[in-house]
# Entry
Amino acid sequence: MKLYKDNNKNVFAYELDGSQDYLIGDKTSITQEEADALIAEKQASIPAPTPLTPAEKLASVGLTVDELKALLGVA
# Structure
């Protein structure tokens, strides 16, 4: 693969056969090591997800606690 980065430090990989060269545009060629470092940097900047409470999990699928209790037959 041929590796490139854009101005926002996004990494792109293109086939060696030249079939995707039209996509390269103004991207800068980089080595595998540079690509690995950029990817690691970007992953490190992604915040860890905040765990959801049980009520938030239910709300994410459109249920309330009372609706779940009714579905389960629990008073």
